Amino acid sequence: MSTNEAKQAQRTVKLGSTGPEVFPLGLGCMGMSGMYGATDDAESIRTIQTAIDRGVTLIDTGDFYGSGHNEMLVGRAIAGRREKVQLSVKFGALRGPDGSWSGYDTRPVAVKNFATYSLKRLGVEYIDIYRPARLDPAVPIEETIGAIADLVKQGYVRHIGLSEVGAETLRRAHRVHPIADLQIEYSVASRGPEGNIFPTLHELGISATLYGVFSRGLLTGSKPKGPGDFRAYLPRFTGENGAKNEDVVSAFQRFAHERQLTPGQLAIAWVLARQPKFVPVIGAKTVAQLEDALGALARPLAKEDVAALEKLVTISGERYGKEQMNHLDSERR
């Protein structure tokens, strides 16, 4: 590890005014449970454990990733290392035995049921940050946050987070209990939160954990790997949008090469430069991908490169399909 990397490894970011101190990059584990094609549990566990050894503290999972598989995988990886990590867990998405998606349930009784099973699968006594994966339109956010607040009082949860909600929902939730962070997609290809959501976070003293930094691999040149890869159904990877975006991605990769960065490092460096108080959550599936991501910490982007990259990258297509976009509280204006 270089001197610069060592300095970065010692740096931490506080999640909100009441949340924990975490390493400046988090590890997102969704891709380790089949969402992006085939996976290898042994390599996934090595990746999580290597991340911990390299100083990464925030490990992000969801109870519906692989229908419980991801939590059990994370549980195996952190056994004996619990005191070194903070677990961020999403809940609420409903799935069928065939892998289908059937909505969300964030009723108080469901919240406590989901948490019970997550604790068991993870093999832990408490969850550091617990958050509904999406806003349930049938349940007032005050009721959901109130239920998690009960879990905080009981010692089963340390902090409360949210995911993909808009400014008004943030305000309503924060009035019930302090919110540590909002998890939301953000990259040079997806800058929507800058308009209204990020200013609201700063006003309320809430942090953000930023996923989709690589735009699901689009910026790094990764492509869908068969029908089991859900990117095969996303607008940015398909049809006319996909063809247009290939040219942008080629330009992005040349930009990275000229600065002696990998495309992944460039994507991370841009986010760190634009939002230094927030934490990118990187979906590394292998040790090699993890090491590449960590290399971005030692390679900050110059201001002129940040501006130049923003002019260069214009991605065609929405980040999700039309139906999903219509249901995202974070997309409501």
From TrEMBL:
Q: Name one GO molecular function term.
A: oxidoreductase activity
What keywords were assigned to this record? Oxidoreductase
Superkingdom, taxonomy of origin: Bacteria
The transmembrane residues are: none
Q: Which SUPFAM superfamilies match?
A: NAD(P)-linked oxidoreductase (SSF51430)
Domain NADP-dependent oxidoreductase intervals? 24-312
Q: Which InterPro entries match?
A: Aldo-Keto_reductase, NAD(P)_OxRdtase_dom_sf, NADP_OxRdtase_dom
One GO term describing the cellular component:
cytoplasm
- Its recorded name reads Aldo/keto reductase
Gene source species:
Pyxidicoccus fallax
